[in-house]
Write a structure and sequence with these properties.
alpha+beta; 2 helices
Length: 76
């Protein structure tokens, strides 16, 4: 199944917390749900839970990066 990469705007504090949770093997449910909602808004159907990839290191705009598996029949 294809993967869709999702970038979510965040602040530095939240991004660090999400990264720390990921390193502990845990998930940040709020950002996972936001990634899933972004996939739905793009007209695609998620096939599984969003997978945390990392964060950007922008000076002002930090983003959380997730890969979300989508059903192939929903990919344009």
């Amino acid at each position: 199944m294809p993967l869709l990469r999702v970038h979510l705007d965040s602040d530095r504090t939240t991004a660090r917390r999400v990264l720390h949770l990921h390193q502990e093997g845990r998930n940040h449910r709020e950002s996972q749900e936001a990634a899933r909602e972004q996939v739905w808004r793009q007209g695609r159907t998620p096939a599984g839970d969003p997978i945390f990839v990392g964060i950007t290191n922008g000076r002002r705009n930090v983003q959380l990066i997730y890969d979300v598996e989508v059903y192939s029949d929903t990919v344009p």
